[in-house]
Design a protein that fits this description.
FAD binding, FAD-bd, monooxygenase activity, monooxygenase, FAD-dep_Monooxygenase_BioMet, alpha+beta, D-Amino Acid Oxidase, Chain A, domain 2
């Protein structure tokens, strides 16, 4: 018998939907709430490493993800010169196992839709447009006036987690000093994997194929307040910055025509350096830790949180300190290592230092190749 009978999951993103799927399949009654009207409404692209794909297979959605995404096993490094010269082609480690690709890119809203639909089919009760307004132990009151008491509340509600604040955990994401332009557009035939350009006016200019006809492209710069730009001005700014990069970027830039597909975000990072639970309330995913996307491990770490938490809850008969100690032991150091490595890459770039980037990436890849 599971350690919990009824669970509230706050947040329908990757971590929340994943833990809802696994618990519901294990016979737990799960309420999954999200404040947005549609969890698949916003986003551009996402890069999923093999360890993320391993959990998606566990969730029973790998076939759908594979059909809608674009898989590849190499990483290209290019020069910011007039030809976009290919400097190196690196074979990525298949961190999910040899039977899964090293990397898969896909449209982020498509992944969100697949996960939420899977959670509902597994038996989770999904409520959009729903916001918790008070938390007393594990009794939660919602903005429609309803209330319920749960055996466990899982806060998977992202960077600005309401649940984290309710627990009195005074840890908030801190700025890193970089900002990223992202867009989702057509995929030129020449783009068959992620290529990264280091140098030029941006720290990183990259792209990732997300489907047969689509990709997302990104440019990382010193963080700036871009909030005053109109959509047309944001598009023009990204096109201008992209003008320094060539090779496949020349075709990508020509396809940058839709202002609605361009967004700008400042990098931030945090980690709760200690247990992520307070009594019967636990934080996972971006509510507990976040990092710049320099290693493309954000979603992977969130999915691993969900997998480990569900495993322990379904294995044990009751919530105990020992369960939470095991959860902390299996997740905290691993997440901290990924966060620190991601931050180290940004520090090297901000300081214009070369650093041992291949060595750092290899160490993280070997770490996450072992299941959490």
């Amino acid at each position: 018998m599971p350690a919990v009978r009824n669970v509230l999951v706050v947040g329908g993103g990757a971590a929340g939907a994943a833990v809802a799927i696994l618990l519901a399949e294990g016979g737990v009654s799960v309420d999954l709430v999200d404040l947005k009207p549609d969890v698949a409404a916003l986003g551009s692209g996402i890069t999923l490493q093999g360890n993320a794909l391993r959990v998606l297979r566990q969730l029973g959605v790998w076939a759908q993800v594979r059909a809608e995404g674009y898989e590849f096993d190499t990483l290209g490094l290019r020069a910011p010169d007039p030809a976009g010269t290919l400097i190196a082609e690196l074979t990525d480690i298949r961190t999910g196992g040899e039977d899964l690709p090293a990397t898969l890119g896909m449209y982020r809203p498509a992944l969100a839709r697949i996960l939420v639909e899977r959670a509902v089919s597994a038996g989770a009760k999904m409520r959009f447009n729903t916001r918790p307004v008070s938390l007393d132990g594990t009794t939660v009151t919602f903005d429609d006036g309803s209330a319920a008491t749960y055996d466990l509340v899982v806060g998977a509600d992202g960077l600005r987690s309401w649940t984290r604040r309710q627990l009195g955990i005074d840890v908030e994401p801190q700025p890193v000093g970089m900002g990223i332009w992202r867009t989702f557009t057509k995929r030129p035939a020449s783009v068959t994997r992620t290529d990264l350009f280091y140098g030029g006016p941006a720290y990183i200019a990259g792209y990732c194929p997300t489907g047969v006809d689509t990709l997302y492209a990104y440019l990382v710069e010193d963080v700036q307040d871009r909030s005053g730009l109109s959509p047309d001005e944001a598009l023009a700014t990204m096109r201008e910055l992209a003008g320094a990069y060539h090779g496949p970027w020349d075709e990508i830039r020509e396809n940058l025509t839709d202002p609605a597909r361009v967004n700008y975000t400042a990098f931030s990072s945090h980690v709760i350096d200690g247990p992520w639970n307070r009594g019967g309330v636990v934080l996972i995913g971006d509510a507990a830790h976040s990092c710049p996307p320099t290693l493309a491990q954000g979603a992977a770490q969130a999915l691993e949180d969900a997998s480990v938490l569900a495993e322990l809850l379904l294995r044990e008969d009751v919530l105990t300190d020992a369960l939470w100690q095991e959860f902390t032991a299996r997740r905290l150091d691993r997440a901290k290592t990924v966060v620190e490595a991601s931050l180290q890459l940004t520090r090297w770039q901000l300081a214009h230092e070369r650093g041992d980037v291949p060595g750092l990436m290899a160490r993280v890849a070997h770490l996450v190749a072992s299941p959490a």
